[in-house]
């Protein structure tokens, strides 16, 4: 399902990040700085566990969900979705 055609690649609009991805983008940097010996796979597993435990604390996820909604609204405008 790759975009092998250069014309399609140029016009392809990336899918917006979900709330987890918005949060993980910054959290991964912080975690990697704290634990430079961890491999990327271990970082990903740790981030998943942190996110799932944070679901019990909605205040932690709220800013990232708001950012996700803003991104989705912006992407809908870019895609001309109404």
TrEMBL record:
- The name this protein carries in UniProt is HMG box domain-containing protein
Any transmembrane segments, and where?
62-81
- Write down the superkingdom of origin: Eukaryota
Organism whose genome encodes this protein: Daphnia galeata
Where would you say this protein principally sits, based on its record?
nucleus
The UniProt annotation gives the DNA-binding region as 13-59
PANTHER family, A to Z = SOX100B
Keywords for the protein's UniProt record, in alphabetical order: DNA-binding, Membrane, Nucleus, Transcription, Transcription regulation, Transmembrane, Transmembrane helix
Q: Please tell me whether the keyword Transcription is annotated for this protein.
A: yes
As for subcellular location, the record says: Nucleus
HMG box domain location is 13-59
What GO molecular function annotations does the UniProt record carry, in alphabetical order?
A: DNA-binding transcription factor activity, RNA polymerase II-specific; RNA polymerase II cis-regulatory region sequence-specific DNA binding
Q: By its UniProt entry, which Pfam families does this protein fall under? A: HMG_box
Alphabetized InterPro entries for the sequence: HMG_box_dom, HMG_box_dom_sf, SOX_TF
């Amino acid at each position: 399902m790759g975009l092998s055609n250069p014309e399609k690649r140029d016009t392809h609009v990336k899918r917006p990040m979900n709330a987890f991805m918005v949060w993980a983008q910054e959290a991964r940097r912080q975690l990697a700085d704290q634990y430079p010996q961890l491999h990327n796979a271990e970082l990903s597993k740790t981030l998943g566990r942190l996110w799932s435990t944070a679901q019990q604390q909605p205040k932690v996820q709220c800013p990232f969900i708001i950012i996700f909604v803003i991104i989705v609204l912006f992407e809908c405008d870019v895609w001309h979705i109404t």
